[in-house]
Design a protein that fits this description.
- The protein is mostly helical.
- It folds into two domains: 167 residues; 53 residues.
- The protein has six helices and no strands.
- Helix 1 packs parallel to helix 3.
- Keywords: Signal.
Length: 238
């Protein structure tokens, strides 16, 4: 299935590109967090005393991060690793597409690369889910329809990846099922069916042979009007 596999490789590369773009933006967003005053090298007081009009208790945990503190460093390292991973998958799938564009047939190795990439993208999407929670506001703040743009972006890309991986898994399962050897029950059914089919074919062939022989005997009698042959045919039919 060259065409189908090429389509899935392109789909996987597109999903990896979406993840990489979003995670790159998230890295930049984290760099914009206000610095922790306790970790500042200078002693000048920060001019950003109120980074949000909302009280801290009304803000999601992600909005309370301060650049340089332990929670910020942990999240920054995690997002940076996810970004690097997504970019690596994008390049890996891109090399497969480049091979296919050069009139080279995709092999089982190409299928394995695509399958592995989809599984890893599913893992990236799973990690996005936990990051979403850091930017999810309480339902009492702005109503249930209001959520920060970063959370909406994470949810959208995660949904795209999960839907793509689900469709790929269904296609992969169907493809591998076609290559599986038949089970014992299937083999038994095939054996019985083949035996019955062969028996019926033999019966049909025997009937056809009898009809042909009968017709061969009837033709001379009809052509010459031989009463003895006609009488023999009538006796056989009787």
């Amino acid at each position: 299935p060259q065409d189908s596999l090429q389509d899935w490789v392109r789909t996987g590369q597109g999903l990896a590109a979406q993840c990489a773009a979003l995670l790159q933006q998230l890295v930049w967003l984290l760099l914009c967090c206000p610095a922790d005053p306790q970790l500042r090298a200078d002693v000048r007081p920060s001019t950003l005393r109120h980074p949000s009009p909302l009280a801290p208790r009304c803000q999601p945990p992600g909005c309370l991060l301060r650049r340089g503190d332990a929670a910020w460093r942990q999240l920054h390292q995690r997002v940076a690793a996810m970004l690097k991973h997504s970019q690596s998958l994008q390049e890996e799938l891109g090399s497969v597409i480049q091979q296919a564009s050069g009139a080279v047939l995709l092999t089982w190795s190409s299928f394995s690369v695509c399958s592995s990439a989809m599984e890893q993208l599913a893992d990236v999407a799973g990690q996005m889910s936990s990051i979403e929670q850091l930017f999810t506001t309480a339902s009492s703040v702005g109503g249930t329809n209001y959520q920060p743009a970063v959370m909406q972006s994470l949810r959208y890309v995660r949904g795209q990846v999960e839907a793509g991986v689900t469709d790929f898994t269904a296609w992969k399962t169907q493809l591998l099922f076609l290559d599986q050897p038949p089970s014992d029950q299937q083999s038994s059914f095939c054996s019985r069916f083949s035996a019955e089919l062969e028996t019926n074919i033999n019966k049909v062939l025997c009937a056809v042979q009898k009809l042909v022989k009968r017709r061969e005997r009837e033709l001379p009698a009809e052509q010459h009007g031989d009463p003895e042959l006609i009488q023999e045919e009538e006796e056989e039919e009787g």
